[in-house]
Amino acid sequence: MKKLLGLLLMTVLIAGSLFAAGGKDSAAAEENKMVVVKTMAYGDNSNSEGVNWVRVVNTFHENNPNIKIDFEMLYDEAYHQKVVARLASGDVPHLAYMGADARWGAPWKEAGQQYDHRDIIDSSFYDLNLIPPMGPNGEIYEIPLGTSNITTVLYMNKALVEELGFSQPKTYADLKAMVPAAKAAGLEVVSIDGADGWAWGSCLMSVMAARTSGDPQWVSKAVDGQFKFTDKEFVSALEYIEMMVNDGVISSKSVLVDYGTNISNFSNKKALFMVQGQWAAGGIENPEVSDNTVMMAWPEMPGEKSSTNGSVAAAIQVGYGLTKAGAADPEVKDAAMKFLSVFYSEPETTQRLRDGAIVAPILKGYTVPSDLPAIMKEKVALAQKALNTDVIDAYLSGAPNDALNAGMQKIASGQATAAQIAAEVEGLLR
């Protein structure tokens, strides 16, 4: 009996030690478990967006060895094309750079991957008053990098303009008056990356439709059917392109200029003015130019309505957001939000502000540094005083928007009239 009891006791002790060991192994396995957040990031190795993204991710990995931000990073049209391809194939990322409008939000909406972030946004960290509703019931589908995104900025090299004996233009006639002197000096008056179809729509025409109609929301109303793109107001806005090319304000050769070349030309004093969005401010690397750049609304255009004088087009800022696929896994959701708390932290937001990627932060209690570069202060000043209008590709998408962008290139190069392009867009929309 004593031998039997001893044997039973030994068995219990062995079993207990094995259970304890198994428990430790299980705990260790849980502790060492890697949570992978599949991510689509925006940027490339040559711009601040891409460089900063990689830096933030690498630092985050060092401090969080159990989380992996498994990202694919692309820029410009390549990004949009890959979003569509990945969603179509079922390879849905957990976290992605996205927006709420037709250009940045439509693919996610069509795939049923928009996720309402209202319940997971930290109201003590973000100023929710600065994040506009993005869905019909007030949903928030992404965390914006900053406040409203101005897309129609006219950048002026103040020093260069003054060297030619001119000052900041108040009217289109003032711009036109600079053409002879600029040509004599071998300079462009207004440079635009016309090879990028979206630049004509987002960075030029969005505000012109509001100027000719006097209605800041003309575009969204037209998409809803209240107006037609063949209406006089929109045709007149398109005719501005032909007028500017004929007057020499914009070159017909601009259709060969891409985004990088456009910014380079302005940065290297080859143009008096440049058309682009507010984000391009960070790409002007020549301090002689950036320190003398004025960021302005387009001057008064011929025939424009006084109610929209001085207006600029602006949309909800894009940012990073969880997809429904990412939010479905609690561990992935928590890991993604932990990463975003670092990505949107005050130091990173300040860096983004200095780089020119945003107009103003959405962080609660944030104080804008007093030593911001002059061009960034210009951006903030423009945002504070300008009337905002619709951005075309925030409402118009697919074939109609593609036809409009390509059509404006045709107008600039003399291959089509404004009326023809307006009719093509309206036909594809209805």
Short characterization:
The protein is of the alpha/beta class. The chain is built from 18 helices and 12 strands.
Characterization of the model:
There is one protein chain. The protein has 430 residues and is of the alpha/beta class. The chain has two domains: 150 residues, D-Maltodextrin-Binding Protein, domain 2 (3-Layer(aba) Sandwich), CATH 3.40.190; 219 residues, Periplasmic binding protein-like II (D-Maltodextrin-Binding Protein, domain 2), CATH 3.40.190. Strands 2-1-3-11-4 form a five-stranded mixed β-sheet. The protein has a four-stranded mixed β-sheet with strand order 7-8-6-9. Helix 8 crosses helix 10 and helix 8 crosses helix 17. The chain is globular and about 70 Å long. The N and C termini lie far apart (94 Å). Belongs to the bacterial solute-binding protein 1 family. It holds the Pfam family SBP_bac_1.
Give the secondary structure arrangement, pairings included.
Elements: H1 2-31, E1 35-42, H2 48-63, E2 67-74, H3 77-89, E3 95-98, H4 106-110, E4 143-144, E5 149-150, E6 153-157, H5 158-163, H6 172-177, H7 179-184, E7 188-192, H8 197-213, H9 218-223, H10 232-247, H11 259-267, E8 271-276, H12 287-290, E9 293-296, E10 312-315, E11 319-322, H13 324-327, H14 330-343, H15 346-355, H16 374-385, E12 388-389, H17 398-412, H18 418-429
Main location: periplasm
Signal peptide: 1-20
Organism: Oceanispirochaeta crateris
